[in-house]
Design brief:
Elements: E1 2-6, H1 15-37, H2 42-51, H3 64-69, H4 77-98, H5 100-121, H6 133-146, E2 151-157, E3 161-167, H7 168-189, H8 195-216
Antiparallel strand pairs: 1-2, 2-3
Helix pairs in contact: 1-4, 4-5, 4-6, 5-6, 5-8, 6-7, 6-8, 7-8
Length: 219
């Protein structure tokens, strides 16, 4: 189920959400520039290992900077396009609910919590964690709590592709369960996707979303 758009328009211009997308695109453009001049791939690999978060580094040189920079580095076209598309769909409404500054703080802390969750399950991993998906998962978790009544217009592939409106209170928990199941499977088979970061980010978003909803009387 690939989301196309949701049924709730944003009230205010989502300046922070747009800014985050722009920063991610700029960083990815820089990666493409490095790649175009780096035939061996060593420079780009060094970039990922410097600005991505490598869990095993915690035991000899805790990468504080990478805790933040990993959220703005992506591993390829499908990686960044998918992440930015999800952020575009779900981020504007959550920014509406929280306000610009609080949304920015929430986004960053959501990415940090997702990173923490990933490290719990992969403490000795030598592979750099990159991508905004952990922080975006937090946005999706908050969206689930604050806008459960929304509908997610999605492209579904069965025998033929078709478009269907799926209630957010079905779409988002289903997405979360898939991340957990894939995380359990990845623990056995191994994969390049940080499913536990997705799950952790979503949990954080639900917790924060519940506090926002209670404080602002969202129904």
């Amino acid at each position: 189920m690939f989301p196309l758009y949701d049924t709730i328009p944003s009230i205010r211009k989502p300046f922070v959400n747009i800014m985050i997308i722009i920063v991610n695109v700029i960083v990815f453009a820089y990666e493409l520039m490095i790649s175009s001049m780096d035939w061996s791939g060593e420079v780009l690999e060094g970039f990922f290992r410097t600005f991505g978060f490598v869990p095993e580094k915690m035991f000899y040189a805790f990468p504080i900077v990478a805790m933040f920079t990993h959220m703005f580095v992506h591993g390829g076209w499908s990686h960044i396009i998918g992440n930015m598309w999800f952020l575009k769909i779900f981020g504007d409404n959550v920014e509406d609910a929280m306000g610009h500054f609080k949304f920015f703080i929430f986004y960053i802390t959501g990415g940090l919590f997702a990173l923490f969750f990933h490290v719990i399950f992969n403490p000795f991993s030598p592979y750099p964690l990159v991508g905004a998906s952990g922080a975006i998962s937090a946005v999706m978790g908050a969206y689930f709590v604050l806008f459960y009544y929304s509908r997610i217009v999605s492209l579904v592939f069965l025998i033929l592709p078709f478009i269907v409106e799926i209630p957010a209170f079905i779409y988002l928990p289903y997405w979360f369960i898939i991340q957990v199941l894939n995380g359990l499977l990845a623990d056995v088979t191994g994969t390049g996707v940080a499913y536990w970061a997705h799950a952790g980010g979503f949990i954080y978003g639900v917790i924060v979303g519940m506090r926002v909803r209670k404080k602002r009387y969202w129904y």
